[in-house]
Design goal:
By secondary structure, the protein is mostly helical.
Length: 102
């Protein structure tokens, strides 16, 4: 069951990533793929730490919402079912997202 939904979720993530802005994708890539801290992101973008944190949180939320909506539509799931599937494959998500962003 985990393998079946993992592939579906990865496709939903790939689609959601394409709908992110360039800045959102870059923030996620730097934070998840290159392990840059919020402080480092703030310095790089020349904004304070709080602004970098808000930008990163918004990028994550956009990604999660986009992937969840795509998965729910594709598999005709309820919100609860969609959350259950995401929890089932959660351990693989960060690796999948970081790999797709690099």
């Amino acid at each position: 069951m985990k393998e079946r939904y993992k592939a579906e979720l990865e496709e939903a993530i790939a689609g959601a990533l394409t709908r992110l802005s360039d800045r959102e994708r870059t923030l996620l890539r730097l934070h998840l793929g290159e392990h840059m801290s919020i402080d480092e992101l703030g310095t790089m973008y020349r904004v304070n730490r709080a602004t970098a944190a808000r930008w990163l949180a918004a990028a994550r939320e956009s990604l999660v919402t986009g992937a969840r909506d795509a998965l729910r539509e594709r598999l005709q799931l309820s919100d609860r079912e969609c959350e259950s599937i995401a929890a089932l494959v959660q351990s693989d998500l960060q690796v999948s997202i970081a790999r797709r962003l690099s």
